[in-house]
Specification:
mainly alpha
């Protein structure tokens, strides 16, 4: 999702700065970015429901620190859903506008907001709430 979102933002930025036409290819990028984010939502919700970290308080097992549990139980899922909502709203608004520059500006604005929220929601290795290694198997 992050890759398609960054590519869509780059495409929208080029459309705004170079005053390009909103072509079928750009519309497909808009559509597929939204579709990929929705697929990511379904995968994420499945992982969320099955995650032992999120369900540890229900079973009584104490395997994670309180900040990490809180981050994944509430913050991460809420921010990721918000990011997908922002992508969906931006895509829908851009789809309904008639002018090419207005479409690009809407995509750029809404997708950049979604990217900001998404970057906050990622459990970076330097985060005080949930430290995760860059590559989990190698602990880099």
């Amino acid at each position: 999702m992050l890759g398609s979102l960054c590519y869509a933002i780059y495409t929208a930025w080029r459309g705004v700065t170079q005053r390009r036409l909103f072509t079928e290819k750009v519309n497909a990028i808009r559509h597929w970015t939204t579709t990929i984010s929705h697929i990511q939502l379904v995968i994420g919700m499945t992982i969320y429901v099955l995650s032992p970290l999120v369900n540890m308080k229900v079973t009584g097992i104490q395997v994670a620190s309180f900040p990490e549990y809180t981050f994944f139980k509430y913050v991460h899922i809420a921010l990721m859903i918000l990011a997908i909502v922002l992508i969906t709203i931006g895509s829908a608004k851009a789809k309904r506008v008639t002018g090419d520059q207005e479409k690009y500006k809407l995509l750029l604005k809404w997708f950049l907001m979604a990217l900001g929220v998404l970057l906050i929601a990622i459990p970076w290795p330097f985060s005080p709430l949930a430290q995760r290694p860059w590559l989990r198997f190698f602990h880099i």
